[in-house]
Description:
Elements: H1 33-37, E1 53-59, E2 65-71, H2 73-76, E3 81-85, E4 95-96, E5 103-104, E6 110-111, E7 117-123, H3 126-135, E8 137-142, H4 149-152, E9 177-185, H5 188-194, E10 197-205, E11 217-222, E12 228-232, H6 237-248, E13 255-259, H7 275-285, E14 289-292, H8 295-301, E15 308-316, E16 322-332, H9 340-349, E17 359-367, H10 382-400, H11 404-411, H12 431-440, E18 474-487, E19 496-506, E20 509-515, H13 525-537, E21 541-544, H14 562-589, E22 602-605, E23 608-611, E24 616-619, H15 620-624, E25 629-636, E26 655-668, E27 673-684, H16 691-710, E28 744-747, H17 764-781, E29 787-788, H18 797-802
Parallel strand pairs: 1-14, 10-29, 12-13, 16-17, 20-21, 27-28
Antiparallel strand pairs: 1-7, 2-6, 2-8, 3-7, 4-5, 9-17, 10-15, 11-12, 11-14, 15-16, 18-26, 19-20, 19-25, 22-23, 23-24, 26-27
Helix pairs in contact: 6-7, 9-10, 10-17, 11-12, 13-14, 16-17
Amino acid sequence: MAADRTASAPTSLxxxxxxxxxxxxxxxxxxxxxxxxxxxxxYSSDLWHEDMLWGFTLRSxxxxxxxxxxxxxxxxxxxxxxxxxxxDDLPAGTHYGLEIRDQPVLAKDRVRYHGEPVAIVAAxxxxxxxxxxxxxxxxxxxxxLVVGEATATAPDAPLLHPGRRDHHxxxxxxxxxxxxxxxxxxxxxxxxxxxxxxxxxxxxxGMQDQAFLGPESGLAVPAEDGxxxxxIATQWLHVDRDQLAPVLGLPADKVRLTxxxxxxxxGAREDLSMQAHACLLALRTxxxxxIVYNRYESFFGHVHRHPAKLTYEHGAARDGTLLYVQxxxxxxxxxxxxxxxxxxxxAASLSIGPYVVENVDxxxxxxxxxxxxxxxMRGFGxxxxxxxxxxxxDAVAAELGLDPVEFRQRNAMSxxxxxxxxxxxxxxxxxxxxxxxxxxxxxxxxxxxxxxxGPVDVRALPGGLSNTTHGEAVxxxxxxxxxxxNVGFSEGFDDYSTARIRLEVIGGEPxxxxxxxxxxxxxxxxxxxxxxxxxxxxxxxxxxxxxxxxVGSAGSTSASRQTYMTGGAVKxxxxxxxxxxxxxxxxxxxxxxxxxxxxxxxxLADGKVVTDGGEVIGDLAGILGDGAIDLEREFxxxxxxxxxxxxxxxxxxxxxxxxxxxxxxEVDTELGLVKVVELAAAQDVGKAINPLSVVGQIHGGSTxxxxxxxxxxxxxxxxxxxxxxxxxxxxxxxxILDTPAMPVEVLELADDHAPYGLxxxxxxxxxxxxxxxxxxxxxxxxxxxxxxxxxxEHLTQLTxxxxxxxx
Length: 807
């Protein structure tokens, strides 16, 4: 075979047969799909090492308390225990954090939320580790609670982080406010004076959990060089490493992370959970240490969606033109900052929705409190705002006597519109068209539970298999909503991703190896990477290298950014490899065909070099010979800039995505039970790299939005800030019986600034699904419903006689 790959001219010229299968634009199967559906896929909780120990974390039973003493003697005396560590045993750094390093690895003198880690144990069996942790004696003295804006900003409020030195501290009005972002544009008082209709209302969004099915887990293995290898389910390998190295007292190159199988994330794996604890115990004992949270621990081991209180005022002219929006958004960030500053920026900049409004006055803040820490979750600040501004759009339309869809379309932004931040939307923004499409879809049939001549199908009724109703007092409602979400990291963050591509001949065929640090958390990025490599390099065989920190950062799998950013990096690296292939081909075979002199007219297809006329002038195997091409490249999107701290003006976001929903519900108005019959969506995706995966992302985001609308909430006790429902028995998520039909209309209007014209997909459907479902319930019941999730008690007459706000 080697003789066939020497530098000789091709022996024949033929016509190219076409592109390999599974290229950009096709619904290529997932490389991990079969393993996952057959139960053979290895998740991080499946990790195993011959001589490993098991780690366990002791957590605080109080939300705010001083630690007076910790006695570990009884735990250490238990046979099988190899180590017990508290704050005093930490070897180097004591705090970590994504932006503000305010979170203790282990609490020292006080705890700030229910479930905060206080001590860690390593033992030879997981049950031994749990029993040892139960033997640790901690003396607490409970302290006054900070549980909302009133208690957080009171003159005598306990300061949760006294002596703050972070870069937000100087511009917030109180130390218990993490970050504040105003948006000011136009003249709101003058617009208010001109308004024919003014609607002002308060809204509330509960604390939602990401509810991924694979709990936090990982395996830390001490290395011979004094470092540590961590096999972990995470969203951002390099930022994990950068937070871990100072805590472990090691240089970054001695903290090596490899991605293990991830059972969902949705933002909750962006912060550290058990990573530092496993590594500390491994280095302390000299043995591999595995930590796997159970479901109860998982609810305390990661951040959640910020609960929010929102006040909105909209003013409109009689002809249906929006004149101004004024709003205030208060997000409860919990005990530590996590990504609250960025969530505030999103909530503020996206607060009025995908509408053209000349006059805007917005304030968004995030609080420190003794509630559980909150941070990234799918939608990232835009979800809370969308629920409120879409409820307002319905309310204003009703006051004006206009159809709610027509009212939205009349005020919808389009390409060239100006955001309240002053940024011009310079790519397609088909908001009115998305609304038109969902409204034009055929309606699902009425009374679907009735079968011809047969028994009632209770699965189609509110209450389902609980068999609570057979159709009595069931009323249908229809609701609409549309939302706007940014794509990628914003506000001046240096957002980049890295890819390494190796092209070589194996078994006589050209094979591409794709190596990135992208965290595959279920979104299908690994599928996209193989599609891009096949498209750009014209090869059938593409192999994926495990994601790890031995290649440059891919950034976080969040902000709907990975197809744009790491997909862009893979494309960029493949283009560099292709250029090198053509250089080598020209060097070897340039005299054999004039086409080699015009590389811009050549492409790679079916393992060949092909002219733009389809003529084959070279063979990849022959060009490569025994010499591989191995290149690494970085990809960056256009630079953004921070929002002005006084006016909120600035080019803050690189791209926007839009999704509209129509929800059809049936409500048993006597029992307060809701059945979502259909949740239709229309979304512009720019370019569907993998159409089936795109629809799957829209379905998944819509389902999480449905969950927030009618069932999902972490309940925190008012008197003690303790989590009351840390289990899937009491924290409810939609099952297949709750998930309705979801017709999807996909638009592909290219964004010229993005690779292939694509647009981030995963988050936008999470925004508009919630307000669409709640709007449909309002239509069925007539109740105002200004809080989510909507519970059965919010939908009965008795509740509304005693609580006119209706929840």
